[in-house]
User: Fold this.
Amino acid sequence: MIGSSLLASTLGLLAIDPPGWGAVLLAGLWHSVLIAAGAFALGLAIGILGAYGKLYGGPVTKDLLAIYTTVVRAVPELILILILYFAVTDLVNQILLSLGREKMQISGIAAGIMVLGVVQGAYATEVLRGAILGVPAGQIEAARAMGMSPVLLARRVTLPLMLSLALPGLANLWLIATKDTALLAVVGFAELTQATRQAASTTKAFFTFYAAAGVLYLALSILSTLVFALLERRARRGQRPVQG
Amino acid sequence: MLRELLLPRRLVMLAILAVIILLVAVYGRWAWLGEPKYQALILKGIGNTLLLLVLTMGIGMALAIPLGLAQAAGPWYLAAPARAFCGLIRGTPLLLQLFLLYYGIGSLFPGIPGIRDSFLWPVLRDAWYYAVVGLSLSVAGYEGEIMRGAFRAVPHGQLEAARAMGMPRFTAFRRIWLPQALQRVLPTLGGETVLQLKATPLVAMITVVDIYAVASRVRSETLITYEPLLLLAVTYLAITGAIVALFRWFERRVPQKTA
Assistant:
C-alpha cells in the first residue's frame, strides 16, 4: 500500500521534540480544551439565567429569550462565530476609544470563550429549562411553603434535583463545545485544528497530521463520555433504579 | 398566530425590529448587491448549498438504515464496526473530517501511478465530491445512532406476528420493521435537517462554492465586514424556516397514532 508506506515515513514528524510537531499539536489540544471549558462554563451561566427567565420571567423577558435561542440555533455556528468575533472586538475597542484609552488586541482565547459561550448559552437554556420542568412541582412548592428565598431554593432544591435530568443534555453540549472549537480555526486561532493545518501544510504530510488530530479529538470525546457517565451516576445516587 | 403578534409588547418589539432593519438598510453598504457578477454568484451559492443539503441527507439516511440495523440486531462482526464508525464520526469535528478527506486522503491519490490518466481523476480532483462524501458520512454517523434506537423501539409483537404469518424475513423488514422505525424517526428528522444545513458552510473550507463561500469572497473583494455576514445569517434563517415549515406540513400528512 502506498498510503501505509507514506504514513510510516512521516510518523516521525509526530515526535514531541522540535523536528517533530507533537508539541505544537498538544499545545493546540490544550487551547481547545481551555476554550471548550470556558465556553461551557459561560454557557451554563447564561443557560441557568436563561432557563429561569424563560420559566419565571415577565412576558418581555420570555420573548427576548425566545428570539435569542431561536436565532442562535437557526444560524450556522461558523457564521455566528464570525459575526460575534468581529462585533465583540469592535465593540470593546469602541468602548475603549470613547473612554480615551488605546485600542487593544483581544486575546484569541478570551474572544473564543465569549463567542462559543454565547452559542452554548442558547442550547444550555433549552436543556436546563426542560430539566427544571422535570423537577416534581411538590418539591419546589414545599420549599416555598417553608419560606425559602428564591436563591436558596434554587441552590438547595431545584438545581440539585434537575442535575440528573440535565446531565445527558449537558454531556452532549460539552461534546459540541469541544468540536465547535475547531471552527475557531477560521478566525486563525491556534487551537488543535489550526495547529494541525499549519503542521500539515509545512511538512506536506497531510494525512498523518489530520489522522493524528482525529485521534486526539476522539480520545478527548471518549474520556469526556466516561467522566459524564460517572457524574451522572453520582447525580442519580439515592434514586430508585428503574425496573426493566 | 397573527393575534399573538398583535399584543402591545410584541407590536413595540416589531417596531424596534423594523427600525433596526431600516437603519441597516439605509446606512449599511449594500452596493455590491446590485452587481450582476455577485447576483449570479449568490444564486449559484444558494443552489449549491440546497443541492448539498438534499443530496447528503438522502445518501446519509440510506447509509444510516443498515448502520442502525447492524447495531440494533446484527451479529457482533457487523455491530462492532457500525458502532465504531458512529463513534468516530460523532467524536471528531466535521471540519477535521473534511480536511482529512480532501487534503489527507486526497493527497495520497496522486501517488498511485497512472491515476492522472484514468477516468477517475476529474472526480478525485474535484472538492465537490469530497464535500458530498464527507457530509453524507457525517449524516450516516449521527442518524445511524438514531436509527438504532428506532429499530429497537418497534414492539417485538409486531415482528413476531409477521413471522407467525409466515412472512419472509426481508418482507417483514420492508413492510413492518422499517416503516415503523422511520415513523418514529420522522419527528426528529426536521431538526436533523436543520443541523445538517448548519454544517454545510464548512465545505467552503475545502474550496466548494456554497453561499458561505460567496459571502467570504464578497467580503475579501469589497473589504466590507458585516453586511455580507448579515445577509448570510438572514439566508440561513430563511432556509431553516422553510425546512421547519416543510416538515411540519409533512408530519401532518403522516398519520400518527397517539396513545
Notes: The mean pLDDT of chain A is 85. Residues 20 and 158 of chain A are 51 Å apart (CA to CA). DSSP finds nine helices and no strands in chain A. Residues 22-56 of chain A form the longest helix (35 residues).
